[in-house]
Every structure is written in C-alpha cells, then in structure tokens.
Design a protein that fits this description.
Blueprint: E1 3-9, E2 13-19, E3 25-32, E4 44-45, H1 47-64, E5 72-79, E6 84-88, E7 98-99, H2 107-114, H3 123-126, H4 136-145, H5 149-154, E8 158-162, H6 163-171, E9 181-183, H7 184-187, E10 193-194, E11 199-200, H8 202-207, E12 217-219, E13 222-227, E14 236-242, H9 243-250, E15 259-263, E16 267-274, E17 285-290, E18 298-305, H10 309-317, H11 328-332, E19 342-344, E20 362-364, H12 372-398, E21 404-408, H13 415-425, E22 428-432, H14 437-449, H15 456-462, E23 465-469, H16 475-490
Parallel strand pairs: 1-5, 5-14, 9-12, 15-21, 21-22
Antiparallel strand pairs: 1-2, 2-3, 4-7, 6-8, 10-11, 13-14, 15-16, 16-18, 17-18, 19-20, 22-23
Amino acid sequence: MALVGAIDQGTTSTRFMVFDHSGRVVAVAQRPHAQHFAQPGWVEHDALEILGNTLAVVDEALTGAGLTAADLVAVGIANQRETTVVWDRATGEPVHNAIVWQDTRTAGIIDRLAGDAGPDRFRATTGLPLATYFAGPKIAWMLDEVPGLRERAEAGDLCAGTIDSWLLWNLTGGTGGGRHATDVTNASRTLLMDLETLDWDQALVAEMGIPASMLPEVVPSIGRLGTGTGPLDGVPISGILGDQQAALFGQGCHSAGEAKNTYGTGCFLLMNTGIQKVPSTNGLLTTVACQVEGEPATYALEGSVAMAGATVQWLRDQMGLIADAADVEALARTVDDNGDVYLVPAFSGLFAPHWRSDARGVIVGLTRFANRGHIARAALESTAFQAAEQLDAMRADSGVDLAELRVDGGMVGNDLLMQFQADLLGVDVVRPVVAETTALGAAYAAGLAEGFWEDLGDVRANWQEGRRWEPAMGTEQRDHLTERWRMAVERTMDWV
C-alpha cells in the first residue's frame, strides 16, 4: 500500500497521521505532553517526553491501522516552531528542558540586543522584530544561565535546534550518525537566519554569543533529509515545515495573495507573497513560506498571536470555569453577547501587531451583571479580535483584500467563534473537509519530494470545502466592538 505519514509535533501534543493519495486520513494517533511553568513567564517542555511520544504515536497509528513502515512512501515533519532544545551530541541527552515559544525569560537579552537601535535592529536581515518569541535568544539564555554549558558548547559537544532538528536527529540515528539539520521555514524563526541567503548570518550568531558549531545545517523544506530508524525504519524523511507554514501548504495556499488562519494553541495568519519578501511596516513578520529543493524559496507575511486555544485551556485548567475545552462554546452561548466584557490574553505579552513584552492579560468591563458565560464568550471573541488585527495589518502591508479566509486547527469546530470571526472580518470564513491541515501539509511536502504527488496541482485538487460562514453583522456594530477591543488592549500595556 502506498501512503504518506506526517509527524505533527505541536505545543500541547504530538500526533502521527497517515494519508492516502487523495489526502484522506487513513490512520491517526495522538498523545499530549506536560506543560511546565517553573516561574511566571516561563514555559518548558521535556524534549525526551516529546521524543518518546513521537515514537509511540508512530507505532500506535501504524499498528492500529494494520500498517507497517513498509507501507509508507515518505514521512514529513511539522513542528511547533520557536521551541528550542539543546542536547549533548555524544549522549543524546538534553541539557535543559526545551524552552517553549511562549516563554518570556529572554526579555533581558532582547533589551540588550535592541540597545539604542530598538526592536527592529535586525528586521532588514531576518524579517523579524526582536522579541522573546524567537529561538536564538533562547539558546543564548541557556548558555548564559546553565553552569558549564558555554564551555561544552565552545568545545563542540552540544547541538541546538528547534523541535524539528531534535526529532530529525533522533529519527535518523541520533548518536549513531543522526542528521543535524533544520529547514528554511524553521530557521527563519530564530533571529539568526538571513532571509536573502537562506543561511545563518554569522554576525548575528556572534552577536548572540552562540558557537556556530551548535547550529543545524539549513536545508530546503521539500527534499530527502535522511532515512528513518526505529518505528520508521527505512522510510525516507523527505519534508520539514514549521507548523504554520505546513498549514499554509496543506490549505493549498501556494500562490501569492492566498492566506489561511490556524486556530491552535496560538493563532497564526499567513499570506503567501510568492518569491517577494514583503517587509512589514505594520507589525507583521516576514518569513519563509517554503522551499522546494533546487528552486527559489517562497515567502509569507505572518501575524502571530500567542493565546488562542491556550486561552480556553486557561479557563479550564487555571480558572476551573469548564471541565473540557469543548464545553466553552455551550457556556458562551448561555449569554446573548459579551455584556461589554473583554478579555485580552496577553499572558506572554502581546505579539503581532503590537510586539509588547511589557503587556499582561486583563479582563475589563466587569459589572455585577457579568457571569461565567460572559467570560467564556469574551475568551472566544478575543481570538477573533486578535485575528482581525492581523488581517488589518496584512491588508495595509500587502495591499491585498482577501476574498475569503481559509481556516484550520482545533478551534474551527467552534461555530460561534467562526461566525463571529466572519462578522468581524467582513469576509467569508471557509473550513476545509480535512481541518488538520498542518499534518496534511507536512505529508504533502514529503510526498512531493518522493514523487507520490506529481506537482502542486495534484495537491490543490485534493482541497475540498467543508463549511462556510458568511458575515451577518452590521458595520456600526462591528466598528463599536472593534473600538472597545482597542480600548481593552491599551489597558494591558506597561504592566511589567
């Protein structure tokens, strides 16, 4: 049987999915991993737990569907992007917990790097503002703060990388000759890669005090990277895309001007800009969308929001307002509107388009009238408000008015949120039949590399509309809600 597999390593769980030629899901297995919050603003994962879960879900998915590794033409990897691992190349042991993309401990390093030049000091080279979000400063923090680590790094004993690098190295042999590489989409999220050369900028690497020997080789997204071991023994690993670029690819947004929004732990709006690197003057990121081996890279504009599904998790885990994430819609529907309550989830500061690491979360507009339903509704609406901010910035940067927005991720099963999103944006919101487009994008990348799909036309032909939400809100109400959201956002700033 000819099938393609995809490892989708996300912020809260790891999943392995198997697809047939039509993009239909043949097998799936998923496992969550622990979130570690050692101090306020710190978010960590256990890289060994993630690796163990990855191997387990591959085995579970294949066994459960009566398949073996021999049934797979190729496997692709999609990953939470900026989360950073440093490990010993001789033992394969991580030297510290992985520092997650939401973590804010590198604020001091960011301030030092910005100096008098400000947060846009390296934007012309990297497409990124200086922010705690990105991977390079996370490596620098470990070297500065973990005793003895800098000496080991300078001796050439350590490897560093994002989760894709950690998984690739382990899946292709680990200490027995594993490949230490990352693709251009993940490398473009480090604050260390030059968008023009698609390689590490040595001046930036030196500026952050990172020995170059730690860093992985930067390679195209689509092309054979190595051969699997363990449960993927003998299977070509032939594609890597950061999770949001994978979702863009899986949604069939392969042409300039096409965009998607993923509603996962965070919320990420990406627009393909083709081979043009569009610099943002409105708080967005310029990032690599994809690169096929032997071809020029394509680029994207991105709006990044730290808290989307994570806000619902907070309602469940920290506040105890709901027992299950799926319960949030029913609770929100117990009220007719938000009751003038706004929740701005700036728990990790504000990402695009504000880039304010000094911001912290607020709930405003509370009166004795407000109840649990209003809080739940405000939490859901915060995701849509943040996405609308991204789209406004994207319109301003690109000059493109979207005809529709393709959506994916765990929250798109929430009809209340999707309708509110269409109302706020004033454009149709469209969900595909296969909503887990991150895994699908990684599968497409690997399958294209191995000739399983002939070309992008093959991939686009698989995309099918599942549901469409049309705007139903008047302009006056939309403007009023948007203005109240802006007022709430202003109240988050200058807290730290």
